[in-house]
Design goal:
This protein has a single domain (2-254), classed as Alpha-Beta Barrel (TIM Barrel), CATH 3.20.20.370. Helices cover 36% and strands 15% of the residues. It has helices at residues 14-25, 41-48, 97-112, 134-144, 157-165, 184-188, 190-193, 213-218, 223-232, 235-243, 251-254; strands at 2-10, 31-34, 55-60, 121-123, 148-150, 170-174, 201-206, 247-248. Strands 1, 2, 3, 4, 5, 6, 7 and 8 form an 8-stranded parallel sheet that branches. The radius of gyration is 17 Å and the shape is globular. It starts with a strand and ends in a 5-residue tail after the last helix.
Length: 259
């Protein structure tokens, strides 16, 4: 089994950045995705320069923080305060695809402005897979030659066929290391619990962090971030991964990423 362990929300806060970097340097985390509009993005990018083996992708954002584009150019995406509207994932999006394309291109280019070529794409709250913007995601994936996180439960059969038809590289995003399932046993039972997915490149989504004011004031997912960090740096967890003959790697290890 080929496994990517990806830390979401890089750039969201300094505590989030420090947790992801520690989980990479001292633990089993192999990749991360950065929020281009995150208030601690510059802090995170400075830390990332110490980690040449860390794959850094873009955590495409449409429903949190503030956009990078001038608000007058993306009116369907923002509220009266110029912040992203929090759209429910299970409802149609009242957005214009061309505005989403403009904003997400700006987010990708923001990461590139730090001298980092992104290695993959995913989305905050998996918004990149919403059927109303999925075509934008695939266009960007093709333009930048980047693989995307595919969470099958968020994608219809019709949309899955569309992704395959467009020949977009994908990896299988797992969302089951979260809240109550955050434990060492998750990794001890990994092969058994994910039987049948041996042929896939699997990605474990996680959010290891130190709690800080930004997280406490802006996220309901709090103490579990700290617990995730302690698990990912636990030497016994690494031993459990090795004992199951799981091949840990980054996106760069498993995909040919062309800048």
């Amino acid at each position: 089994m080929r496994i990517i362990i990806n830390g979401d929300d890089f750039g969201f806060s300094e505590g989030q950045n420090l947790g992801i970097i520690k989980a990479h340097k001292e633990g089993i985390l192999t990749s991360t995705t950065a929020m281009a509009g995150g208030p601690a993005l510059s802090h995170g990018m400075a830390l990332a320069k110490e980690c040449p083996n860390l794959s850094i992708g873009v955590h495409l954002t449409l429903d949190a923080l503030c956009p990078l584009s001038p608000v007058e150019r993306i009116p369907s995406l923002v509220d009266e305060h110029g912040r992203f509207i929090r759209f429910p994932m299970d409802r149609p999006l009242p957005v214009k695809p061309e505005e989403v394309y403009l904003e997400w291109t700006a987010q990708i280019e923001k990461i590139r402005s730090y001298g980092i070529e992104p290695t993959h794409l995913d989305g905050h709250h998996h918004m990149h897979l919403h059927p109303d913007v999925l075509k934008v995601t695939t266009v960007l994936a093709k333009e930048y030659t980047l693989p995307i996180r595919l969470v099958p439960s968020y994608v219809s059969g019709e949309d899955l066929n569309f992704i395959r038809k467009e020949r977009i590289q994908t990896f299988y995003g797992l969302t089951d290391f979260y809240k109550e399932t955050v434990s060492e046993d998750y990794f001890r039972r990994f092969r058994e619990d994910h039987e049948g997915l041996e042929s896939e490149i699997l990605e474990i989504m996680c959010h290891p962090a130190y709690l800080d004011d930004v997280i406490l004031e802006n996220s309901s997912y709090q103490i579990h971030r700290v617990k995730e960090l302690s698990i990912l740096v636990n030497p016994e967890v690494r031993k459990a991964v090795e004992a199951q003959h799981l091949t840990l790697g980054s996106v760069k290890d498993f995909f040919s990423v062309t800048p």
